[in-house]
Amino acid sequence: QVALERIDAAGSGRAVGRGGRRRKAVVSDRRADPARWDRAAESGDASARYHLGLMYEQGLGLPIDMQKAEFWYLASARQDDVRAQLALGRLYEKSHNPLARDWYLKAAEQGNADAQFALGRRCCAGEGEKPDFFQGVAWYLKAAEQGDLRALMTLGHLLVGTTLENMAVECFEKAAAMDDPEAQYLLGRHLASTKGPQRDPGGAFEWYKRSADQGFAAAQSAVGTAYASGSGVAPDFSEAFAWLQKAAAQGDAQAQWNLGSMYASGGEGLKQDLRQAFVWCHSAADLGFVPAQATLGVLFARIKDPVQAVRWWEKAALQGDPEAQFNLAVMFSKGQGVAPDAQRAFQWFAKAAAQGVASAQSKLGLLYAVGNGVAQDPIEAHRWFMLAAPGDAVARANLARSTARLTADQVAEAERRAIGAG
Predict the structure, then answer these.
(1) Distance (Å, rounded) from C-alpha 353 to C-alpha 323?
(2) C-alpha distances in angstroms, 53 versus 72, 92, 299?
(3) What is the pLDDT of residues 189-236, one digit of tens each?
(4) DSSP E strands: which ranges in 16-60?
(5) Interior angle at CA 168, CA 164 and CA 169, nearest 5
(6) What's the pLDDT band for 22 if we cut at 50, 70, 90?
(7) pLDDT at position 197
């Protein structure tokens, strides 16, 4: 429509050769003589040339003709029309033409945020040139300073976890103020996870809620979790369940796992339902969510299916879940769902113990004490009893017995090792 007005203003197009009287042309009239549209842009108006290039590229009132689109974009871009320069950058980028960067650069230097963002992306990814992360960040910054939402979010993601974390938060704050749901969620997560006086569970919940109200699944899951734990808001089981349902229905794995756990235990008006627990935990586990895989192992163990329990615990254990590692070690030590294997049991107990699982540390101490799956080592046994004792009654009893049997030097060595492990 803008192109038509420009062409009419140039004295060509819909009312040429009709004594100055104009009539509204139908689409077929406009398509009848494409050369007439070309003549309209020959007057030299940069904006008309840009719009004509756009019409040829998009097939708007004219047949698609990429050569003519490029021709008119070039004519307009050489007159410093920033829209045409940006269009050429995009056009050449599709064909991997190195000229794409040159036209993006011209548009970016005129302050076009889209071109600045494109240059940031190309620099960071090394598209058509050597990667230059810092130059890419500089272009993203220029676009972000103009309030470009994509640049703000990209810059925020790039800077999270770096020494410029504060700048990342500022980017998310600006994007959140623009009502971007992902930024609101990320800002909430930052406030919830920050340590020290800056930690603000109530503020985190407010941002989660604003994002969740827009349908952002991760935020809905966070709102549900907050209601369940009472973090930043009064505990409310029914609200937690309702928000987790919304997130789970959108495929959020953590929400599916939490929902499955709620069905597994029941409570506050929710009837225990193992079938639903299996459905939701299985869905999350299939998405690769490790805690759900570990929980699924527990559910299979509850229904006396050790083979499936081992299968899911092994998946989670290989990805570092400490409880799954401990449970898998128990299965190998007892030969349940798998052939008994003292060495593999020891290996999994050791992995769980290294992650601070007190029951695994206690068991590891016992294995060292009796030499089961590993060479007997009373000092190493004492060390693990010491580490496990604060949280495991069996370890405390074994620690007392071990202390009575070891020499003072052996106890001192075990203490030295325990301090090193801590």
Answers:
(1) 10
(2) 5, 14, 62
(3) 999 998 888 899 999 999 999 999 999 999 999 999 999 999 999 999
(4) none
(5) 115
(6) very low
(7) 84
Amino acid identity, residue 307?
V
Structure tokens at 364: 């590891």
CA 11 vs. chain centroid, Å, equals 54
Three-state secondary-structure class, residue 163: coil
Task: Confirm if 138 and 154 have CB atoms less than 8 A apart.
Answer: no
Helix (H) or strand (E) holding 200: none
**At which residue do the structure tokens 């976890």 appear?**
161
Question: Whose structure tokens read 């990342």?
Answer: 168
Distance of CA 154 to the CA centre of its chain: 12
To 10 degrees, the CA torsion angle through 77, 79, 81, 87?
Answer: -10
DSSP 8-state code for residue 269: T
**How many other CB atoms are there within 10 angstroms of residue 249's CB atom?**
13
The answer to whether 157 touches 183, Cβ cutoff 8 Å, is no
Angle, alpha carbons 64-70-76 (nearest 5°) = 120
